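Quick illustration for those who missed Monday's session on complexes.
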Amino acid sequence: NCGQCTLWCPTSAISEKSEIQKVKDAINDPNKVVFVQTAPSTRVGLGEEFGLPAGTWVQGQQVAALRRVGFDKVFDTNFTADLTIMEEGSELVKRITNKEVTPQITSCCPGWVKFCEYYYSDLLDHLSSAKSPQQMFGAVLKTYYAKKNNVDPEKIFSVSIMPCTAKKFEKERPEFNSAGQYWKNKNIRDVDASLTTRELAVLIKENDIDLTKLPEENYDPMMGAGSGAGLIFGNTGGVMEAAVRSAYFLITEQKAPEALFKLAPIRGLEGIKEATLNVPGVGDVKVAVVHGLNNARIVMDEVRAGKSPYHFIEIMACPGGCISGGGQPRTSVPPSDEVRKQRIATMYNKDASYVLRESHENPEIKKLYQDFLEQPLSHIAHDLLHTKYTERKGNLKAKKLV
Ligand code: SF4
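Prediction with iron/sulfur cluster bound:
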């Protein structure tokens, strides 16, 4: 077990099983093309494995290292973080305008999702049906990208670099074979292997590569562009802030006001944060941001009692969000608040420096809808990008788990 997660994840979802050899075998297999995606928060963690201070930005060096390790294409999970926002934001707008079940609750954290499936299975209809960025990436890679580039989807080996050990579990969920269903080929899985940030560091070092000496390189096109909104997905409050920027636009067809680009009440390390947003045509929208599963229990008990004041809730299992996930470097175990703050500060500073800060403005996302997905919540978007959850109450061994 990863150490950190056993502290925080009571669901046994999280155990670290190395997939380094599996990835090396794929890289050495002449019949495979090996494509990789990198999660938002690995770029503010990886440097610590090479002696750099917590929060050092190594996005470009990480891309360069992945190419030198042997990946054929290096893509960005921020691209599908933007896609998740498009689908999840559209779902939220639909739920609010049609007076469907609210609060909508985020579902991009597999540690949280599994916890909910065990302990709050009566509330699964509150979870957004939008898949996580990791899983959307795999589904789009082996359909849209494969088709556009004439690559045999069965030859694609899809790897994710994640700050998270629970992502290894998530990719194995039987339902995450949307590309296989699309091609009617049960051998095709959406994501074939997931490495933690720490495993990536091992792979880089095994190849005698010094990350600190590498030039900064750019992601490959088509699935390599991400907005500032996609980037801040990696820290507590980031998914909500990203969603708010786009949901405002989807409802009003106007750019969100400047205040929504630095949503102070939902930033920082307080366990439960909330904000009220006034959206023209809708009125007050109340949102909450929660990290750590003990805090999740508090807001979920409120939802169960019918007393939740919120329309939308972000929940992340790890305190601080993915920047301090169980797969990140162990500069301190568990990460100190100081380390968390340094990683988070880099994320927000980079977002503030970007020209592209809204998911719906990402040109590669616009092209994906134009050429393939049609529009958010379309039939094909539902097939590839949305999912259902599993009641696991019957399997619960609560006495061991909490
Ligand atoms: Fe994984 Fe992020 Fe959830 Fe932690 S918060 S379990 S790193 S997805």
